[in-house]
C-alpha cells in the first residue's frame, strides 16, 4: 500500500505565505507525477499544481505567479510554496500521486493515491 502524508497547513493573513509538504511512502516502484488539489465543501476537487518526474509543472490560472510546486531529489516529497495568499485560497488542500506500487507480487498503477488533506485558512 501507499501513504501520502501532508503537512504545513494553517492560518495566515492575506498576503502571507505558507509551504505545504507531502511525502509518499510504501512499496513504491515509480512516481510519474505528484500534485496538489483543493476542495471546498460542496465543490469539486480542483487542480492547483502538478509536477512530473521530469520536472514539468502545471498550474491553475488562479495561482500562477503566486504558488510554486517543487519536489526533492528522491521524487517522493512534493512541496507547494504559496505566496501572496488570498481569502479565496481558503480550503482543504490534498496531495495526489500518479504512481506504481507492488502488492502481492504484482505491480499496481494508480492515479488515485491521495493524502488526508490539510486545511489552509487565509483570514485577517
Q: How would you describe this structure to a colleague?
A:
The chain is mainly beta. 0% of the residues lie in helices and 63% in strands. It is built from no helices and eleven strands. Strands 2, 4, 5, 6, 9, 10 and 11 form a seven-stranded mixed beta sheet that branches. A hairpin with a 5-residue loop joins strand 7 and strand 8.
Continuous helix count: 0
Q: Any idea what the radius of gyration is?
A: 15 Å
- Average pLDDT confidence is 96
Low-confidence parts:
none
Rough outline: elongated
Which sequence of SSEs, written as H and E, runs from N to C?
A: EEEEEEEEEEE
Number of strands: 11
Please indicate the percent range of residues in DSSP E strands (runs of 2 or more). Answer: over 45%
Through-space gap between termini: 40 Å
Let me know the largest β-sheet.
7 strands, mixed
Structural class computed from helices and strand pairing? mainly beta
Provide the helix percentage. Answer: under 10%
